[in-house]
Amino acid sequence: MAKMAAYMVESGEDVFRKMFKFYKRRDPPPDLRGVVDFSSEPPADKVAPAHLDAAAVSDEEAARVGLRPVRDWRAFSLQGFPGFIFISNPFLRGSQPFWVRQCLKTYPQKPNVCNLDLHMSACDTQDIWAKSAPVLRSPSSGRNQPKTLLEKLHWVTLGYHYNWDTKTYSADNHTPFPADLHSLSARVASACGFPGFRSEAAILNYYRPDSSLGIHVDESELDHTRPLLSFSFGQSAIFLLGGTRRQDPPTAMLVHSGDVMVMSGQSRLLYHAVPRILPTPRGHGALLEDLRPASPQQAAAMLEPVSEEDWMACSVYIQKSRLNMTVRQVLGAGQSFPVAPPSSVTRTDKSEIGGYHDEDPGKRKRSDSDSANET
Ligand code: SIN
After folding, report:
1. Nearest C-alpha to atom 6 of ligand 1 is from which residue?
2. Which residues touch 342 (CB under 8 Å, ≥6 apart)?
3. What is the pLDDT of residues 96-109, one digit of tens each?
4. Which residue has the higher pLDDT, 364 or 13?
């Protein structure tokens, strides 16, 4: 891999794109030996423990959003990426199902916006969960049945809704940001040295086994001094983190259910992408065992319990899917949106690969109604 990167740097080719294609390839499948896995013994020459502010979040505040005490988090920094923090599953056992259920049942509801709104009536997308969950729960789920709406969901936006065409946020396209997701985000941000983080926008990505997310930089927010927070649930993925130029070779890392990534400081505006979804390492049974909802007694201390009925549908869904939420603060203190939108796009989407695409990179354009998203 190092050789390939060196060759590509010399030849001036777009190294990130090459690496993206390398990890996306199905036949033969890519060699994953060079991929950093923070859940096992990460390589000491690339990875070091990250310092967190354990006093910034009390154990009770952490537990209320399903997180372990901050002093118990396994947090890492990555050499060459100042400001990037990888927190290997800081969630309390039994609390991830709450967030999975929010992603599947609650957040896709109106007034939030999703890809299905682009080509379906508001009435048809009114209750995606109610229309999909019974089908997912049925014993014949997945067998020669048309896809449920939930399985057609690619993205949901919260708070300031990202405009995929202008690549901007605006004051008049806003709905209330979910309080529970803000609490989770604010606690993670505080522990990482960003007190007072305001969750103002989120993009939720729903990945199927053949999905990928194109190479992009999240630069549409007006204040880049605030971090970008990323929460992942369900199946695993390869995440590529590059530099400020497409010629910079990216580092590949595995992201598993519960992992949290923070992009801040010099790593806030780096190219990144998800070329591949991978089955969870120990199999779906083990994932479900790890994720099993907390008992009502445990849950009483933390989050609203997930009913068995809801979990049955969620667990079928995540057997094949990955969920990712990226939470952003859009405006800095005292900042507001420009009065008139600029005539040209000020916040370039540098990706040349479509957002979600299940085919060859570049075949599907970003404007595809059901293709997600780069920001
Ligand atoms: C991810 O799915 O891990 C990344 C999402 C993003 O970059 O928007």
Report:
1. 326
2. none
3. 999 999 999 999 99
4. 13
pLDDT tops 70 at residue 207: yes
Atom nearest to 230 CA in ligand 1? 3
- Residue 357 DSSP one-character state: -
Q: What is the pLDDT of residues 39-87, one digit of tens each?
A: 998 888 999 999 999 999 999 999 999 999 999 999 999 999 999 999 9
Side-chain-side CA neighbours of residue 175 (13 Å): 14
Residue nearest to atom 3 of ligand 1 (CA): 324
Ranges of each domain in the chain: 2-336+345-352
- Determine the distance separating the centroid of ligand 1 and the alpha carbon of 310, expressed in angstroms: 25
Alpha helices in 75-194 (DSSP H): 96-101, 128-137, 149-152, 179-191
- Cα of 138 from ligand 1 centre, angstroms: 31
Q: What is the 3-state secondary structure (H, E, C) of 7-31?
A: HHHHHCCCHHHHHHHHHHCCCCCCC
Looking at ligand 1, which atom is closest to the CA of residue 322? 2
Length of the chain in residues, anyone? Answer: 375
Which residues carry a binding-site annotation? 216, 218, 272
- Other beta carbons within 10 Å of 56: 16
The whole-number pLDDT of residue 41 equals: 84
In tens, the pLDDT along 218-243 reads: 999 999 999 999 999 999 999 999 99
Please give all residues whose beta carbon lies within 6 A of any atom in ligand 1, as ranges.
203, 205, 213, 230, 232, 239, 255, 272, 274, 324, 326
> 2-336+345-352 maps to which CATH number?
2.60.120.590
Q: How confident is the model at residue 289 (pLDDT cuts 50, 70, 90)?
A: confident
To test the pocket of ligand 1, the residue of 162, 220, 229, 272 to mutate (highest count of ligand atoms within 8 Å of its CB) is: 272
Backbone CA torsion sign across 350, 355, 360, 362? negative
Residue 12 clears pLDDT 60, i.e. is over it: no
